[in-house]
# Entry
Amino acid sequence: MSLLLQIAPSDSLTKVVADLNLGPLQEPSDVAFTFETIGWPILAILMLILIIVFSFFQIIKYKRNQYRREALAELKKVTAGEMNLTHCMVLVKRTAIHAFGREKTGKLAGKEWFSFLDENAKNVAFLSVQTEVEALIYKDEMPENTAKEKIIKNTKNWIATHAAR
# Structure
């Protein structure tokens, strides 16, 4: 309080501060940035465990979907003309047996089979090409190019997106 009373209105602030004689600024010592607290090793161990668990589940998922990759590789041979178009339905049946079991899919045929395919995958419409597929399989008649492309597209979509149970 006494300091405030001593300052005259004509004195500038710099003159008043110079008269105080505060001396040099005293800076605090530097703060050390180290990882010596217990939280950092715990965080590192938790992150390592999470990475290992995530990698483990990704490897399991990769191995579980190997049959899909193999079927899609065979489908590429069909599209390249190395294999007959009827092999598309062989691939779908084999994939369905692997994913859903022989008891459930082995006995399906005709409209029931095509309905099963449409219900268990995304963006698949095998019922729309049922007559062309049956003519291809049973009469060995090659469908038109548009129907052929639909069969290949549906086969690819079914193998890639079916929901295995």
Notes: The two ends are 83 Å apart (CA to CA). Residues 68 and 159 are 6 Å apart (CA to CA). The mean pLDDT is 86.
